[in-house]
Amino acid sequence: MSTVTDRPSGTAEFDGIHYPDRPEGPIAAAILAGGVGALALGVVTTLSEASTGFKDALNWNNAVGPLSGKTIVTVLVWLAAWVVLHLVYRNKPYETRRALTIALILIGLGVVGTFPTFFQAFGG
């Protein structure tokens, strides 16, 4: 029978083997970066509908149209957010539940920004 015990010294014990606790900062950084990426997609989608100049600037491939720029910009924002957040939280005991709550709010805002009824309200 396996037993898990928590030890106050920052380690956990499982069947007599001691495992050091690791900070949850890198996990929280990845979760938050996903939320930032989703929000970036909503913002870029809404901005491209609001500004024809911005929409034309995102047309990096004529076969795909402005969607090519939207996705590439969103991925670059997501990667940059992940790198920055990882560097900030890599050795910190950031609460994963809090990061998930913030990320879900950001994802929700990003999804709203991609709904046609929302972004068409900003169209010219």
TrEMBL record:
Keywords: Membrane, Transmembrane, Transmembrane helix
Membrane-spanning intervals of the chain: 27-47, 67-88, 100-122
Domain of life: Bacteria
Protein name (database record): Uncharacterized protein
